[in-house]
Amino acid sequence: MDHDHHHAATDLPEGAETAKDPVCGMTVAIKPDGRQAEFQGETYHFCSDKCLAKFEADPWFYASGRAEGQKKAVPANVQYTCPMHPEIVRDAPGSCPICGMALEPMLPSDEPSEELADFTRRMWISAAAAVPLIILTMGEMVGLPVRDWIGHRTASYLEFVLATPIILWAALPFFLR
C-alpha cells in the first residue's frame, strides 16, 4: 500500500472526535484545520495528503464504500499485517493497534512482486549506463584518458546522455515518494 503516515492512533487526544479515513480505513482525529474534503454534502477526513489526493481523484469510488468491498479473495489460513508496521501480525482482519490502518492479508507468492521486478529492471539498465559513465568520468585516474581521445565537449554531452536516464527514469519512484 502506498501511504506516508507520520502519526499513530495513540497520538489521538483522549476524548477526541474521530472519523474513519475512507481510503485506508485509518482512524483520524477530526480537526478544523485537518485534511478533509466535502462530497455530496458530507465531510470526509483523511490521515495523509496521499489519501486525500486519492479520494479527490475518485470520490464516488471511496464514498460509496466500494473501496472496502473490493478485497481480494483470501485463503483460509492467512495472516494479516499492517502496511505501515510489518511487525504487527494477526490471524484475523482488523485494525493496526499502532496506527489504526486496516490490516492486509499476507499472501504467499512464488512470483516476485511487481515492484521488485520493476526496481530490478531499473537497476540493471542504470548499471549498464553507469559503467561507461564511470569510465568516462574517472578514466583519467586509472590511466584511461577517454576525454582526451574523444574531446571534452563530446565527453560532456555523453555524460549528460548517460546520466539523465539514471537520474530521471531509474530514480523516478524515489522522487514520487
UniProtKB/TrEMBL annotation:
InterPro entries documented for this protein: Ferritin-like_SF (IPR009078), HMBD (IPR045800), RNR-like (IPR012348), TRASH_dom (IPR011017), YHS_dom (IPR007029)
A Pfam family per the record: HMBD
Sorted UniProt keywords: Membrane, Transmembrane, Transmembrane helix
Transmembrane parts of this sequence: 123-144, 156-176
One Gene Ontology molecular-function label: oxidoreductase activity
Ranges of residues in domain TRASH: 21-59
Top-level taxon of the source organism: Bacteria
Protein name in the entry: YHS domain-containing protein
Lineage, top ranks: Bacteria, Pseudomonadati, Pseudomonadota, Alphaproteobacteria, Rhodobacterales
